[in-house]
Structures are given as C-alpha cells and as structure tokens.
Amino acid sequence: MHRLFQNLWVRIVSLLIFTATxxxxxxxxxxxxxxxxxxxxxxxxxxxxxxxxxxxNERFLNTxxxxxxxxxxxxxxxxxxxxxxxxxxxxxxxxxxxLSNGVPFEVVERYQPEDGPAFFxxxxxxxxxxxxxxxxxxxxxxxTVPEPGQTTxxxxxxxxLRANALSIxxxxxxxxxxxxxxxxxxxxxxxxxxxxxxxxxxxxxxxxxxxxxxxKFQTDDRQVMTRGVAFETIEDNQPIGSPRTSFQVAKHPLxxxxxxxxxxxxxxxxxxxxxxKRLQGGLELSFAQLSAGFTLERSLExxxxxxxxxxxxxxxxxxxxSLPAGQGRxxxxxxxxxxxxxxxxxxxxxxxxxxxxxxxxxxDQLARLFATVLEPKLGxxxxxVNLPGNSGATGTESVLTSPRDGHTWITGSAADIxxxxxxxxxxxxxKDWNCFLPVQYSQIYSVGAQSPHQNFGQLLEAxxxxxxxxxxGTAGPVTTGAIAMHLLQQKTGIQFSNLVFNSGAAVAAAxxxxxxxxxxxxxxxxxxxxxxxxxxxxATLSAEPLVVEGxxxxxxxxxxxxxxxxxxxxxFGFLLPGGTPTNVVSAVEKIWSxxxxxxxxxxxxxxxxxxxxxxxxxxxxxxxVLNYLSPVAWSLFEAGVTLFSPDLVGIPRP
Length: 654
What we know:
Oligomer: single chain
C-alpha cells in the first residue's frame, strides 16, 4: 500500500510540475504533427531535470505497450521502469550530459523496451528553457534507422532524391571522379570556378574544406573502402569560406565485377543544424524540415549507376559526358593546377596531455614519461592533466570536445577507448583516433601481503567457496582490471564484489592496505608495492610467465589454473582524435619516429614494469589494438554487457 501511495504521489507531483512549466514558457508543448510522415515515424518524449517522463506522443507510447496504456501511465516514471538496466543507465547518462552542459546531443543507439523487440534509432536530445533561459526539461525525438553497418543506398528514382540529394563518386585515394549538380552547387559560393564536374575531377576534400573536416571525410572513406561495408552518419559540411550546414550521409563501396572495391559512392541530403542557436535556445524543432530529408524508402536495393568500364559524368555543353575509369586524375593534371603543399606543423603553445584517471597509475606514469622525452622535440612544455571519472570516459570526452589543433592529447589504454561506444559510455571508436602506442601491459591477479592465498589456485578456491564476498578493486567497469576479472568470471563462473577507484595506483594502495582482497591491474600500477612485498602477484593474464626486473621469481600464467584463459598485451600510449589536421599528425609521426623507438627512458620503463616494448603507430597500431580488443569485446557481448554487437563498430569476431 505504501508503494502504491508513493507512486501515486510521484505522478501527482510530476503532473503539477508539468502543468506549471506549460504555463511558464511558450516552447514546452509538443508540436502538432500535421505531416503524415511525422505522425508515422517520429517518437517524441519530454523529461524533467531528473529524467522523469512528463509528456510523450502516441508513437512513443506505442513502443512501451502493453506496459503503458495511456500518457497517465507514463508520467512520473523513468527509463529504469521500462528498459534493461544497462540501456536505461545509458539513456539517463545522455540526459545528464545535455541537462548539465545545455548543448543538444545526437546519437545512433539501440532502443529496446524490456521484453520488447530491439531496433536502432537516431536520437536527438535538446534542452528546454524557460523565459529566463534556465533549463527545466528535456525534449527527446527519435526515429528508426538501419542497423549500423547494414545500410543500403536508394536509387535516384524519386523526385525528392533528384531534387535534393547530393551524389559524389571518389576513387580509392578519395579523389573526386564524379558528382551531380546538387553537390557542385554547395561548392560554388566559395569556389565559383567549379562550373562543371570537369572542374572537380582530380581534386580532393583538402582543396575545398578545412583540414579537420577533410580528414574526417577521408577517414570515413577509408573505413568504407577497407571494410567494404556501407557507412552512415550525420556530419557538418562547410566548404572554406561558406556557412556550416548539416547532412545525413551514406557511403557505399563501388565494386568491379570480381568484387574488388575500386571507389566510393556518397549520397547526402541536408537536415537541420542540430547545434544551432535555435535548438540551444530550447525552441521547437521544425519537424516539417526534419522530416523532409527522410521521406524516401530506406530499404531500396542499391542500383549502381556508375559501372567499372565507364564512369558516367553529369552532362555539359562543353565537355564529354563520360571518361574512361581511372582517367579522372590525368584529365585533372592536364587542365588544372594542383593545390599548394601543406605547411609543416609546429605547436604554437603548450601541449595538454590528458590522463583520464587519477595520479600514479599506468596512464599517469606513461604521460609524465612522454612529457620528459617529447618536450625537447616539440619545443613546447607538455602539461599532464588528470581528469578521472566514468571509466576514463570523462577525460576522453574532454579531449574530443577540445579544438583538434594538435595541442590536446590523451594518454592511456587504447582498448578502453575501443569499448566505450559498445558499452554506452561515450560515442567514440578506436578507429576514430590516431594511435601512438609504445608499450603493452599484461594484467596481474594480485593480493595483499596479509592475504592467506599464496598462489592463484588458493585464490580461485576462495572465490568459489565465498561467491560475491571477496572484494575486487578496479578503476571502473571498462578498464584493464575490470576486463581481467570479467574474463576470469566468464571462464570460471565466480562472483565477487567490485569496488571502484579513480586510478590503478589507488587500487594498488587499497590492496596493500587490506581494503580490498584482490586486484587485477597491470604490474606498473603496483610495481613499488610488489617489490616491497606489500602486494603478492599470483598470476598474469599473458600466455607466458612474466619476468620483471626486481622480482625474484617469474609470475606464472593464469592458464596454469584456468586452461584457455589468456590475453595479448593491452596497448598503452598517447592518442590524437580523428579530425586532427593531417599536417599535425604527420609532424607528430616524425617526432615519434625520431624519439620513441630508441628512447632509453621508455626501454628502461618497460623492463622495470613488466611491459612489452613494441612501438607502433598508424595501421600497425590499429591492428595491435584489435588483437587485444577483439576477444575482449566479443566476450563482453556474449555476456550481455555491451549494448550491441562489436562488429557494428568494426571489431571483428576473433
């Protein structure tokens, strides 16, 4: 009876709050959906500042039925009442982000009510403000989209597409081969000499766009041509000197008859700018404008109008209507001047090296070592800034939201970043980063000196004898120590209590003090305490015994007690976000090649901390990360920890 009264009281209060806000601001009511597409496709819901539902349209209510029969059944409840916990917490984390920073947020995510079907949606969350500019609620709009990685492109068969869609073809070097008039029109305000497609052929994105945008476009191109899988995103389009616009973009590989990818087909159509002042002010979305770009059927099969033997061009009175495939670059060379060479980059001020964990752990130690060895070559100071929280996602997000001009880097585990998106912590993927990774760590299962467990076999028996009792310390649910414990749990079925600290060093200190029973961090997190005998290393996750300078005996592999349990080294280093200009990345690569591979400081650090010294960058770094990340991500997926399948973000099954 008390529970019933409590729920009734929450609903009454929520209704009163909602009624009050409706009378206090003109922008709080849901728009009338007069467009047939809107009525059929848009799900709309409002929440208060505690993420409690206060309003919704019928389309949204339908996704929750039979749990919700009417709007009154929804008001006063929250996501935890209707969705699996991991999804509900992800939705609420995004709510907090928008409510705290006041900036609209957009994401493609999994939507699945409890016991209901799962599908993917494009979600936009916008703060609602009163007449004084204060945020009092949240407007959420979403609609279904194809499952990431499964997009097919429509043919140009509708009047809407012919009138509105941009169409572009590129070769495997992201050089323009073809385009329609709609795309050329977006370039002409800044580049009036692009009168026909022949003025475009042979150029690339760097000719028309700022370096960060051009690099973003070409990174996506490479992803599609390398994986051979269609890709869809929402992104800004802003030729140099032109205003910014937002587009829904779909990229699809073009193939020869034998299946070889020889180019790229890009379709794009304009949508409202989701970061405009109109939205930031809390005004209503122009749903007619939003829906205009999505009235086409998304399930049409791709009909490639360009074929391998001949690339069809847009008709013109002055040029031939087609050129043989592969001749675009030669046509350009004979008729145009190449763009100027990009200047060499040098930092104009100090470098901020963000560590997404507290002081003293593996990432922090490595960042401070990087600062020492890189400052002479950079010609600038490197300041290490610790921003712990949310399994490292807080610090990582700070780097993503900083200017991508080469002056803000992050140091840490590449695998952590690779898991953020599929676990709902942060909308980023490892392939979106430029990785510079000199060392690989193996996790060590360890106990304090006061522990009665002298080897891993004894510890394993204790886990089994006392399910859920032993306390394990980690730096967060998606960190190296947590991963090691998850892999052990999946192999053995053990249960434990997880205590979270802000760094691996804090975990090690707690282990030595007896505040936790077990840790599974890398050796470097507790190196000094292990050498002092205050922490006892029992087993390593690596396949071979781990030999560390200063320890009298090698640390045996955990597979000695749990057959089949092992993992390759977890790559650590510094990373620059995608969209960093190419000349910046090239300059850092040059400094890396001159300093890192032969650095005596790093070589000694690796030897003293049980790390494998294997400097890699570029494609080699991505491959090394996937070698560790792939089995870990799929193990988490099979255990139901992730929101969706890892292959949807390019992590192949091992």
